[in-house]
DNA sequence: GTTATATAGAGAAAAATTTATCGATATATT
DNA sequence: AATATATCGATAAATTTTTCTCTATATAAC
């Protein structure tokens, strides 16, 4: 009973990560003038199991109608709502390098409830300038500003060696969640959320998939050659 | 029997993604002069279950010794080996914008078996220049070059609207795995690996964790206030 | 109106993943 | 030398996640 109030509706991390994909696909459907959509249709487009799609939507508290599917507008609104994209979270970004600028340039973050309000730098040459329309401020000013402005999210796009220092400043400023793009394991208080975006881990996954694919193909090729050799023997009348 | 040859040792995606984290931590240990390491130690440092660490290492085919743990050098070599970081994969990167430049600047990709050999662009102003020491080539030249150089990996860092066209060119060039940073669902032949790096999905996960945290805290605060009120009533002698 | 059909909804089954347990073993200590 | 202890290795249990199956329902076709 009380638990319902204490936490948001529980959902598997994997489901949560699929919902934005559905949302994106549904928007393209809407742009094409569609009014209704079914789970099999979504599954087909996104190469996902239809039942899984249905379970994900169920987890997000969205219902449809048998034989009809889901009303597109209701579904889009439901996902938006469930993901909290109506409420904006303000964020500070630290590290006005290329990655930082790329993130500031991401067009749709604001529509996903993320508003990067300023960026911070160490480099005096950059401080005081503007990046993608956002002020570049001195890193020392972060803690106080974060407190004053009640900014809850910090994004770290500095080199690995500097990341822990930045994280400490963020914690000092009362930041509650850190989106870390630096390849280091940050040490944080228990009540601060750490979300690592680690491209090396991602690369490991990609590399292995490719290695599997290439190995499989090499094996198939090898088997084919063997078969060809056997066939040649047969043709030659060895048996 | 034959299956052993057909595919690499099977491993859970989640395990695979943890191995680079272990590797990174182990390198810092090695730098500190350590010779041996145990699963509980790794687990403690990386906030992972020790049994899970052991299972991951087992999946990678690495063995240790009871009571002692793992020899650091053997363990590092084992992970490197398992992840295929000894063999280099060459890659083409398309989209010489900020994200592309950030990726080209990632210091350690080469140590993880990824060698980005060139980048490609649409913008004539950029073509012919160099980015992080790598040539910026015209996008039309990609298919032939990919074939000639046997490049197997394509990295897409162009805007969403251009991504599918780029993917098609990559497929035309015989590229086997695409690391896609654009927020679109690419349509590819079945035998081409697609690895999406979708920050919006990642953001959804972060946002929800934060929302949960803040809601929980608000609830706790509310309960405390209620308790305080009750206490006041009690003090006032209402009962 | 009746029948056929596609799809949500609900629950069960299966698969995968994580966590716990216990015995075996190598080292350190007494 | 005997004992204690930490950790691997293997197995089992628990949990989570995915997939399957069946039923009910809304629409369309006849």
How does the SSE layout of this entry go?
2 copies of one chain form a homodimer.
Chain A lengths: L1 H5 L6 H19 L4 E2 L1 H8 L3 H10 L10 E2 H11 L6 E6 L3 H8 L8 E8 L8 E2 L2 E5 L3 H8 L3 E4 L3 H13 L4 E4 L12 E4 L2 H37 L4
Parallel strand pairs in A: 3-4, 3-7, 4-6, 7-8, 8-9
Antiparallel strand pairs in A: 1-2, 5-6
Helix pairs in contact in A: 2-4, 2-5, 3-4, 7-8
The first copy, chain A, binds a DNA duplex (30 and 30 nucleotides) through α4.
Task: Write up this protein.
Two copies of one chain form a homodimer. With 239 residues, chain A is an alpha/beta fold. The first copy, chain A, contains nine helices and nine strands. In chain A, strands 5-6-4-3-7-8-9 form a seven-stranded mixed sheet. A two-stranded antiparallel ribbon of chain A has the order 1-2. The longest helix of chain A is centred in the last third of the chain and has 37 residues, at 199-235. The N and C termini of chain A lie far apart (79 Å). At the A-B interface, α2, α6 and α9 of A face α2, α6 and α9 of B. The first copy, chain A, binds a DNA duplex (30 and 30 nucleotides) through α4.
> Overall 3D geometry of chain A?
extended
Give the strand tally of chain A.
Answer: 9
Low-confidence stretches of chain A: 1-6
User: Strand sequence of the main sheet of chain A, in spatial order?
Assistant: 5-6-4-3-7-8-9
- Terminus-to-terminus distance of chain A: 79 Å
Question: Sheet with the most strands of chain A?
Answer: 7 strands, mixed
Report the oligomer: homodimer
Mean pLDDT of chain A: 92
Instruction: Give the helix level of chain A as a range of percent.
Output: 40-55%
The arrangement of helices and strands of chain A along the chain is HHEHHEHEHEEEHEHEEH
Protein structure class of chain A = alpha/beta
């Amino acid at each position: 009973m009380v638990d319902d109030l204490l936490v948001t509706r529980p959902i598997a991390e994997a489901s949560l990560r699929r919902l934005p994909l559905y949302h994106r696909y549904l928007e393209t459907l809407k742009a094409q003038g569609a009014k209704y959509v079914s789970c099999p249709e979504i599954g087909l487009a996104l190469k996902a199991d239809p039942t899984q799609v249905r379970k994900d939507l169920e987890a997000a508290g969205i219902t449809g109608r048998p034989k009809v599917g889901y009303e597109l507008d209701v579904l889009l609104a439901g996902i938006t709502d469930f993901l909290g994209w109506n409420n904006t979270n303000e964020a500070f970004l630290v590290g006005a390098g290329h990655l930082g600028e790329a993130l500031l340039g991401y067009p749709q973050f604001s529509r996903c409830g993320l508003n990067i309000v300023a960026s911070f730098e160490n480099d005096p040459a950059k401080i005081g300038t503007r990046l993608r329309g956002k002020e570049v401020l001195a890193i020392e000013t972060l803690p106080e500003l974060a407190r004053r402005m009640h900014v809850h999210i910090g994004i770290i796009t500095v080199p690995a060696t500097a990341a822990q220092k930045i994280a400490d400043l963020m914690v000092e400023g009362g930041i509650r969640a850190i989106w870390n793009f630096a390849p280091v394991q940050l040490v944080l208080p228990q009540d601060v959320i750490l979300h690592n975006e680690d491209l090396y881990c991602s690369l490991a996954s990609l590399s292995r998939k490719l290695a599997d694919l290439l190995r499989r193909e090499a094996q198939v090729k090898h088997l084919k050659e063997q078969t060809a050799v056997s066939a040649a023997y047969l043709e030659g009348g060895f048996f």
